[in-house]
């Protein structure tokens, strides 16, 4: 389990590099770091449990039980906090995404990240393609279209025009 958690934490940190323009807050990596720390602690606790079982030590098994109970309480607390603050996180991410979409010009690094995100997640805009109508890029191009990264992968002649929403 500790190895699996370590892999997940490292994967999240590695994936962060692709989306760091959207997650401007450096604390966004905190969950991944916590996951890796939990993996290390799990390994140590598992080692204590194995040693206590092998030696048939009542004190060691009691310590192991106490540690497991503390971890369970921490997990329940983390679940409750995640549930309580889910809307705040959603609002913060959407506002950050909107600000990155505002900086889109088709050439800058933020534009590359937006295009990559839309292609990888098969989406268009923050909520949908109509989000593009309020951006400076949309108003400056005056061609009533969204970036080509909004096009469906199977759409052959997609131009990103808003009068063809079935291709977006």
TrEMBL record:
Its main location: membrane. The chain crosses the membrane at residues 28-54, 61-85. Signal peptide: none annotated. The keyword Transmembrane helix applies. GO terms for cellular component: plasma membrane. It is found in: Membrane. It is a multi-pass membrane protein. Keywords: Membrane, Transmembrane, Transmembrane helix. PANTHER family: TETRASPANIN, TETRASPANIN-36. This is TSN36 protein. It comes from Sclerurus mexicanus.
């Amino acid at each position: 389990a500790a190895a699996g958690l370590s892999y997940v934490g490292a994967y999240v940190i590695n994936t962060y590099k692709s989306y760091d323009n959207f997650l401007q807050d450096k604390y966004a990596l905190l969950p991944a770091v916590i996951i890796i720390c939990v993996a290390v602690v799990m390994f140590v606790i598992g080692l204590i449990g194995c040693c206590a079982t092998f030696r048939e030590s009542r004190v060691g098994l009691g310590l192991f039980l106490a540690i497991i109970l503390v971890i369970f309480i921490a997990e329940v607390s983390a679940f409750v906090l995640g549930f309580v603050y889910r809307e705040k996180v959603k609002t913060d991410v959407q506002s950050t995404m909107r600000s990155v979409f505002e900086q889109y010009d088709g050439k800058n690094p933020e534009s590359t990240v937006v295009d990559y995100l839309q292609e990888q997640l098969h989406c268009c805009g923050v909520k949908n393609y109509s989000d593009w109508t309020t951006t400076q890029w949309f108003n400056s191009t005056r061609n009533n279209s969204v970036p080509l990264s909004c096009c469906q992968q199977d759409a052959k002649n997609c131009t990103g025009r808003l009068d063809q929403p079935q291709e977006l």
